[in-house]
Every structure is written in C-alpha cells, then in structure tokens.
Amino acid sequence: MAHDAPGDERFSRPAEGSTTTTDRRRARPVHEKNKGWYWLFLVPFFGAFFPWIYNTRDPELAGMPFFYWYQMLWVPLTVILTIVVYRKTKGDA
Amino acid sequence: MGGEWLTLADVKEVELAVFVFLFGVVTVLGFVAARWRRAETLDHLDEWGLGGRNFGSWIAWFLIGGDLYTAYTFVAVPALLFGVGALGFFAVPYTIIIFPMAFIVAPRLWSVAHRHGYVTPADFVRGRHGSSTLALMIAITGIVATMPYIALQLVGIGAVMRTMGVEGEWPLIIAFVILAAYTYQSGLRAPALIAFVKDTLIYIVVIAAVIYVPIKLGGFDDIFSSADRKFTESEPPNDGLLLADPQILGYSTLAFGSALALFLYPHSITGLLATRSRDTIRRNMAALPAYSFVLGLLALLGLMAIEAGVEPLTGANGQPDNNTVVPLLFDTMFPDWFAGVAFAAIGIGALVPAAIMSIAAANLFTRNIYKEYLHKDASPAEEARVSRLVSLIVKAGAVVVILLLDPQFSIDLQLIGGVIIVQTLPALVIGLYSRVLHAWGLLAGWAVGMVAGLYMLYDTPNPNTGKEHFGGAQYALSNFGIDTEVTVYTGLIAIALNLIVAFAVTAIVRGMKGPELPDRTSPDDYEVEAGDPGVEELPESPEEQAVPAARS
User: Fold this and answer.
1) CA B223, CA B138: separation in Å to the nearest integer?
2) Going by C-beta distance under 8 Å and a sequence separation of 6 or more, which residues neighbour residue B149?
3) Which of B241, B286, B538 sits opposite A65 (nearest CB)?
4) Is the CA virtual torsion B196, B197, B199, B200 positive or negative?
C-alpha cells in the first residue's frame, strides 16, 4: 500500500483560494490526436543510425568531412520533424 | 605533483578570479532558490524533490538540458574525439534520437505519475506491476547507476582546476560542500535556478569557441588534415577520422543503446516529472536538441585541440589525462578572462546534474527502500526530511569515492551504469504501454540482463591501455564464436537477453496459471493532462505568464 498515496496526499491540489478550474486560462485540458504522425520519427532513425551511408570523407563542406556535417545536419532536421509532429498531434482546445 | 593538498605555484590568477566570482554567484542563487516560486512548505517530496511539479517550458528547458548535458559530457566527448576520432562522435546520433523517443513515451509517464503521486520510476513500477521486489530492484539499479555519475562530475571540475594550476583536492571538497548545503536547503529549485546561469555560459563559450578557434587555427581544412595525420601515424588501429569497417555496427549500437538509457536514469525522470504538463514535455523535446547541436560543436573542439598542439596534462595515475584537453584548448586560445568564463561554465555545469542526481537517488532511497521496507507509515514531511539527509550522504559518498579511489574506477562504474540502467527498460517503458510482461518475468529478465551485462563488461579487455577487464562497453562478436572483428554495444546485447527471458518466464508463469499481481493504474491514467480530474492545474506562477506559447 505504500506507493499509491491516499487521495489527500496525491498531487491533485485543488488550488486553494481560487474558485474552480473553469476560471483558468486553459480551462479544458488539450489531449493529443492523430498519433499516427509519430511514425515520422522513423525518418531521423534511419537517417542517423546507419553509418554505412555516411562514413565517407567526401563531399566535404568547408573542409569538414561528410561524416561530421551530415550527422550535425540531422539535429536541425529532427527539430523540424518534431515541430511538425507536435503541431499535427496537438488536440483542439 | 599530485597527492599534495594544495599547490598554488603557477596559478593563473585572472582565470581563477573569474571562476571564483561566477561560482560565488551561483552559490548565492542556490540558497536564494529556496524562496523562488515559493511553496508554502518544503516538507513534501513534491516540493523539495520535484520543485513543486510546476516548471513551465522555459525552466524545464534549462533544467532538463542542464541535467542531461553534464560537465563530464562536455569534457569527455571532445576528449574521446581527441583520442580516437570518429568513434567519439556517436554522441551526435545518440542525442538525435533521444528526444523523439521521449516525445512519445515520456508524457505517459508524466500522466500516470501525477495521477498517483509517483515521485520515482520505481514508484511507478510498484503501482503498475504490483511487485515491491521488482520496484526495489529498479530502485537499486537506479541508485547504483547514478552514484558514479555524480562522482564523475567531480572529474570535470578537477580537470578545470588542474588547468588553472590549482592542484590538490580541497577545491573539489569545497565545491561539493557548498553544493550539498544549498541542495539540502532548496531541493530541486536550486539546480533549476542555477541551470539558467550554467546553460547561458555554456552557449556563450561554445559559440565563441567554434567561431574563434577555427579562425585562429586557419580553418576546418587544416584542423581535419592534422587530425587525419595524427590518427594515421598513431599505433592503435581503432582510431581515425572515419570509422573503420568493423567499428560501424559498434558505433550505431552504442548510439542507440545510449539513447535508450538516457531517459531511464533517475535524474532524467526527476527532470521530466518536475514539469507542469504533458504539453511542457512535448514542447521541450522540440527545443532540447539545441543542446545536441552545441554538443556536436563541442565534440569538434577535440579535433581542434590536435591542430592546436595541445598536450594533455598528466593525471594522478601518471597517464596523460585526455579530459584536460578542452580546458587546455580554452587556456591556450582565449584571453585569460574568457578562459575563466569557460572554466566556470564547465565547473558550474558539474553542479547542476550533480544536484539533480543526488536528489533523484535520495528520492529512490526514501520512497522505495525507506518507506517501503523501513518505515511504512512515513508522513510526507518525514519523507522530505529523509530525502534531504540522504542527498547529503550521496554527495559525501561521491567525494570519498573520487578522493580514495582511482578516478578510473568511477569511469568504469559509469560504463557499467549505462549498461545496467537499460535493464530497467522492460519494466518501465513496456510497462507504460501494457502489462504483457508479468512482474516475475520482468524480474527474471532484469536479473539475466544484469548478470550478462556485468559479465560481458568484465570480459572486455582494452588493448590500448593494457587493462584486462572493464576495457569498454563494446563486446566483440568473436566471443560468440563468430569469426569477425565486429563489436556491438554491450548494453544492447544484455537488453536483448533481458527481453527474451522476460517474455519466456511470463509465458511460463501464465501457462502455469500463476497469480496475476494487482495493477493500480487504469488506461486513462496514461493520457490525462494537467487540468483533468485528479491532475488539477496548479496556481499560475507570475514568472511564467510571459511565456506566450502557453496561450493557444
């Protein structure tokens, strides 16, 4: 019984002083939708985890071997993909 | 040189002065943090141990970033590139895939933890799988994996100190005593506030370094050619500007296995659970890769150090210590005052994760050992009190380990830490989605994964250093009788065995009609967002109202 805190110990503090949650800025919580978009994350996985495709020196970029700049490039690309997935899966308020 | 308590012969005064000044600033911040976003009381683990569970996007970004990208990372990754070249760059693909994975999985943990008041990963395992033994094993695994990680933060500070000419052990002790004091006082709020300073300094230093150093060295062409020359001329065959063919599988499995491990560490989970909402986590997973980019740039500094002709300082064991390479590069390239800023960035960078790790380890002890086995009806106030005390013990332990034992021991332990923390994946991550695995199966899988992982690490020599055991986390497939030079990340082999055993034993238990253990969670617990019943939103804090993104 130790780990499930009884109701009054849980972290569900009804905000003291304030009236009800309906006053709040985000009155209704938003839930995710269209979770199929998560599959888009396979793209950076295949892009970054197969060194066979990028373990080469050429083409160099400003003196930097392909191996290094190609992997660095996946960081901003993954950010863009994450933002797309975030937008597409964000539910309506 | 080493062994003496204090040698101040050729101390670099300007660097040290800047360092001490910035260190002083964060010390003040650490104590002030107790009053920041003040709670009515710190006598509750949600407050002391999770900062009120109320951090919004900005604070969470600094906190989680400051938590995951430790001083040791910032020193060791470039040191690896300096030493062996391409292999050290695994940190980049590793950090590319972490955030998408956490984007999908972490919100589920957030929701169930808020509904049920879980503070630690083992709390969740206890509630979900109904086995306190399994929860205990998860807690112990977490504590054992975290302890050497804390000790390694001291290695980061030590490398900086030696570069500034400060020898001896007293600076480490002072730094950790101060850290222990304000962590005790302020809990998770201290590293959260200090993380702002740490990360700002890190970004300034790294951006300055990757612009300024290549210009001074004559461009990336020269940097990569001289690195290539060094690796070609050197003896060991496992270094190079590109991966050798047998290394490729090892590289990708290491990156992937490390990515699996990162968010299983208790301190990562502490950072996640301290956020205000699922949305905060999801949003952060798009913003946190900024740190990955910085880490990639920083890694390249290891190659720049080759062109700059940096010779690593000799460590306590008489071997060259590559961890001093980046501090030395800053020292030779930058004006004194800016080198001081850079050193402060690394030094303060050690404090943030060390504080969070000690809080996470203390929470595991309190919730899953003390409360579960020693004092079943501990009140929330008592839990907070025990956790605060244990956080002191944890840090004292880390200092003792570093001072009394060879630092190599901590590095070995940390290697082990990565392999064993992955063994908690089935109970945690699969548990977040289903109860397809029975607690007994999970327990058996965990045990097999641990034993196999430890054995394989023990069985791995390192020909470069002449070590016979614990020579690295790459296991040669030739050990399985395959005629090849290919190696695979040890943690990934161990987790594969873990999963096979977990499914097999589950099938046996269910086949023999073994008892189903209770599950305290319900399917919608994993989807609830702040504001839903049972997860009421907390009062707005004034600092966060300026964040525009929260309005939609």
Assistant:
1) 45
2) B70, B72, B265, B267, B353, B357, B414, B417
3) B241
4) positive
pLDDT attached to residue B338: 92
- DSSP annotation of B520 reads -
Q: Cβ(A41)–Cβ(A85) under 8 Å?
A: yes
- Is the C-alpha dihedral spanning B239, B242, B247, B253 positive or negative? positive
- For residue B327, give Cα distances in angstroms to B153, B288, B320: 15, 25, 14
Q: Check: pTM over 0.90? Answer yes or no.
A: no
Q: Which chain A residue is nearest to residue B381, measuring alpha carbons?
A: A9
Residue B158: which of B313, B385, B31, B382 has the closest Cα?
B313
CA distance B391 to B398: 11
Distances (CA, A) of A91 to A33, A84, B186, B306, B547: 5, 13, 36, 51, 20
The CA distance from B274 to B55, in Å, is: 6
CA distance B491 to B512: 31
Q: Which residue from B minimizes the CA distance to A47?
A: B93
With contacts defined as CB-CB under 8 Å, which chain A residues touch B371? 2
Tokens of A36: 């199929």
Residues B125-179 pLDDT 10s? 999 999 999 999 999 999 999 988 888 888 788 888 888 888 777 888 888 899 9
pLDDT tens digits, one per residue of B85-113: 898 899 899 999 999 999 999 999 999 99
Listed residue (B280, B48, B261) closest to B141, CA to CA: B261
| CA proximity to B114, closest of B271, B277, B268 | B277
CB B370 within 8 A of CB B275: no
* CB crowding B503-537: b at 16 or more within 10 Å, else e: bebbeebeeeeeeeeeebbeeebbebbbbbebbbb
* Residue of A92 and B525 predicted with greater confidence: B525
From the list A11, A32, A82, the residue facing B285 with the nearest CB is A82
How large is the ipTM?
0.85
